[in-house]
Design a protein that fits this description.
Distance between the termini: 88 Å
Helix content: 55-70%
Order of helices and strands: HHHHHHHHHHHHHHHHHHHHHEHEEHEE
Shape: globular
Radius of gyration: 27 Å
Strand order of the largest sheet: 2-1-3-5-4
Largest sheet: 5 strands, mixed
Number of helices: 23
Structural class: mainly alpha
Strand content: 5-15%
């Protein structure tokens, strides 16, 4: 039996670039075999996006910035104020975060809300992309997968961080979505969207190479599995809902395509595909160069972007080293419903073998989790890379249970609904607990060397004393920081014009001094009675800062 695609293909005289009859056929089949009404689908997706938006946008300034957020904010402020950003292969990943955040910063101003708004919007957009996979997954599966990601504790927590991960996973899923669209609709513009998404992915983080390799392996494995299963062929969800009648049509189309010898006929033939592949490659290079060259102002950045893989290969074996099972343990603690549903979805996708996208996502989820588990370097925000495919394949598990039995019998639907509600309830509780109450409690896996809320009290105290020291312009107050640990204070003190970050003991006469706790005794001896201790504030676990103020004010 042929293992060629079941997608209908136009004849030799068909015009490439126009939407294939395959796409309209899928929509028609989906309409006939729909699981819920269009009204339920509309209300469901609005509700999912509303929940995702609320959890990611509500009180974005509540949590003090993490150390890495403070550093990212420092790069952004230099770009915002001086128009300068130069990629450094040894530090803090690619440039897309800063250039995209520049837009929200210009519109709103350089505030904590403005910089965190960007990853929050990308987090919401990722949920939306899962909903867009309805034509391949089915209505219930798409809604369930999007909802699982919308309330995932880790997805929400990392979407409220000014770091690269939220953008990174969006671009990864965008590659998958655009590639599927190109396969189904034979629209060459979708191939360009694949290239642009891939370029933005590489311009966001060096770990793009891991994601791309896993995606390629997952695609290849899906093709091999389809060939092995024979009867699977390449079906969309719409065909799956039609059963044997649809499969018979698919086999007939495959035979016709094999006889015609037009394997790439629906894409316009080999020459047309090759031309647009070259155009897509040019788009990839252009976008890549634009960002890494800082919009043609730093050509060295392009060269450095290629050297960074050597640097991060060394870093990945020396810093943040954890056992191979760490991610599984973190997921079990914070994402147990997602982990269990994901595992069930992987089993169902491989066992049933009736949905190409489900098989691919199953292999993607397993592959990306395995890849990051094998790398010694492990941080919680990297978990977002496999939370997304786990949510999608978890939604597929819910959709499969919903359809179990002839014509989706009531018992199957009740089971699916009960499992879905129970999973959302657990995830929702953990999300609210983590993101709005225990966001700086390091007993939670995602709270990784995070800044404690007392740091904001330190900032408030500095602001209060600065108003007394310089009533006309508090930002002129001199602040000396002798502590070697101070991030993210540069972000919170960004408006102060006389702040010195020395990182070691020194003599000073500025109104305010900040030291680390283990420096305070020596500092008091050095300063004598000219300064008094105002208070101590935990910066993060193991680091406490002491604020001293000059007695004369």
């Amino acid at each position: 039996m042929s293992t060629a695609s079941t997608k209908s293909r136009p004849g030799k005289n068909a015009k490439p670039g126009k939407t294939s009859t395959r796409a309209s056929e899928n929509q028609a089949l989906l309409a006939e075999g729909q699981e819920v009404s269009e009204r339920v689908w509309l209300v469901g997706r609005i509700l999912v996006l509303a929940v995702a938006a609320f959890l990611r946008l509500y009180d974005l300034s509540l949590v003090p910035l993490h150390h890495d957020e403070g550093v990212n904010g420092n790069f952004l402020m230099r770009l915002f104020r001086d128009g300068k950003y130069f990629y450094d292969p040894a530090n803090y990943h690619g440039p897309t975060l800063y250039y995209f955040a520049l837009l929200t910063t210009y519109i709103i101003g350089p505030t904590t809300f403005a910089i965190r708004l960007l990853p929050a919007l990308f987090g919401i957009a990722t949920v939306w992309l899962i909903l867009c996979l309805r034509w391949r997954l089915g209505t219930v599966a798409a809604l369930a997968g999007a909802a699982l990601l919308a309330v995932s504790p880790g997805a929400v927590y990392m979407s409220r961080y000014f770091i690269h991960e939220s953008l990174f996973v969006f671009f990864t899923l965008a590659i998958v979505y655009a590639a599927l669209k190109y396969w189904d609709e034979a629209n060459p513009l979708q191939l360009i969207f694949v290239a642009v998404s891939a370029a933005l992915l590489f311009a966001t983080k060096e770990t793009a190479i891991i994601s791309v390799i896993v995606l390629i392996i997952a695609v290849g494995s899906t093709v091999v599995y389809a060939w092995f299963r024979k009867e699977v062929a390449f079906k969309s969800y719409a065909e799956e809902t039609r059963g044997s009648r649809s499969r018979a049509k698919a086999r007939a189309r495959d035979a016709q395509v094999e006889e015609s010898g037009e394997l790439l006929g629906r894409w316009g033939g080999w020459l047309f595909v090759l031309v647009f592949a070259c155009i897509a490659l040019m788009f990839f290079i252009a976008v890549y160069v634009i960002f890494y060259s800082s919009f043609f102002t730093n050509w060295k950045g392009v060269k450095d972007s290629l050297e960074t893989f050597t640097f991060w290969r060394k870093t990945g074996t020396k810093e943040h080293v954890h056992d191979w099972s760490t991610y599984l343990w973190w997921l079990w603690q914070e994402e147990s419903p997602l982990l269990l549903l994901g595992a069930l979805g992987i089993i169902l996708a491989i066992w049933r073998g009736s949905n190409r996208l489900a098989i691919f996502v199953a292999l993607w989820a397993f592959g990306i989790l395995a890849a990051y588990s094998l790398v010694p370097y492990k941080t919680p925000w990297l978990a977002l890379n496999f939370i997304v495919p786990l949510a999608i394949i978890g939604g597929y598990a819910i959709g499969s249970i919903y359809k179990m039995g002839e014509d989706g019998q009531l018992f199957g639907r009740v089971r699916a609904l009960a499992l879905f509600i129970a999973s959302l309830s657990v995830c929702g509780y953990q999300t609210v607990s983590l993101n709005f109450f225990n966001y700086d409690d390091d007993r939670y896996p995602y709270v990784y060397a995070h800044t404690r809320r007392e740091t904001l009290q330190l900032v408030d105290e500095i602001d209060r004393l600065a108003k007394r020291a310089e009533p006309n312009d508090p930002t002129q107050t001199g602040i000396t920081i002798v502590s070697p640990d101070y991030w993210p204070l540069p972000w919170y003190l960004r408006d102060y014009k006389r702040v010195g970050y020395f990182g070691q003991m020194m003599t000073t006469s500025e109104p305010l001094i900040i030291s680390r706790e283990d420096q305070s005794a020596q500092l008091q001896v050095t300063l004598g009675d000219r300064y008094r201790k105002v208070g101590s504030y935990v910066l993060r676990p193991g680091v406490t800062l002491i604020l001293f103020a000059r007695r004369d004010f």
